[in-house]
């Protein structure tokens, strides 16, 4: 069973460092999830502590090394001591790890190429940036919209399947991040802009707003931006894949007794004709238009043809 721990601290970084110390592991061996982001007031006072859950996904490898050579007393300085034993075992383990990573990357690229061939996508090149226990594969070429899909859904699915293919080779987890024509950076920027605009509107109007469904990574981006904004907070609601972020005002606008409410409800003083109070529903905000403008030029008739590939086996 994987080890996990939940830490509460004044900041996310402080909570992560404390969790790593208590578990005795490094950040590369863990998956971290921010359950509750930290919040500060305008003057830097802690308004809300951060809550972070850290799960160990890979145990540290134990490598035997040669025992240290003990220095001899001055009285026996002339006695020859044996040379220290070379750490051949450690080098062997490192070489095996590099070999396994290379095999996983090769399997990932072969799988992606097979998918591209079946989809009829040509002229796509792959660029690989390899890390110690992870790698980023970037696809470059023309007509990449078919590989990205609506708000990156197709790209996320390909990334998940590619990671599964890599980790079938052995039990060590290897993370694969799949990008397509710098889409990840563009999407991240669009989400940050959306979170800022929506937060400003919520703080000004005092009305909560609900964003479109997002994956956990995108929700974390929105939560991190809202944490830095004054007068608003955020929470997630629903179940994946329809889980959404709601941005709420810290000082909600009081319900008016007439005017706007009266016109919308058709009654007097904010009540409808049956005498029931009508509350304002959450306004929904979509990123439609932000990323669509970026990808609109890349969408061609090939996307329609590719819809028949609704199921791809690996």
UniProtKB/TrEMBL annotation:
Assembly with partners or alone: Forms a complex with KhpA.
Role summary: A probable RNA chaperone. Forms a complex with KhpA which binds to cellular RNA and controls its expression. Plays a role in peptidoglycan (PG) homeostasis and cell length regulation.
Annotated Basic and acidic residues bias: 260-314
Key words, A-Z: Cell shape, Cell wall biogenesis/degradation, Chaperone, Cytoplasm, RNA-binding
Protein name: RNA-binding protein KhpB
HAMAP family referenced in this protein's UniProt entry, alphabetically: KhpB
UniProt keyword Ubl conjugation, yes or no: no
Biased composition (Acidic residues): 86-97
Region spans: Disordered: 75-101, 231-314
Keyword Transferase appears in the UniProt entry: no
Family matches, as Gene3D superfamilies: 3.30.300.20, probable RNA-binding protein from clostridium symbiosum atcc 14940 (3.30.30.80), R3H-like domain (3.30.1370.50)
Family stated for the protein in its record: Belongs to the KhpB RNA-binding protein family.
InterPro entries reported in the protein's UniProt record: Jag_KH, Jag_N_dom_sf, KH_dom-like_a/b, KhpB, KhpB_N, R3H_dom, R3H_dom_sf, R3H_KhpB
Biological processes annotated in GO: cell wall organization; peptidoglycan biosynthetic process; regulation of cell shape
An example molecular function term from Gene Ontology annotations: RNA binding
Domain notes for this protein: Has an N-terminal Jag-N domain and 2 RNA-binding domains (KH and R3H).
UniProt subcellular location: Cytoplasm
R3H domain location: 185-251
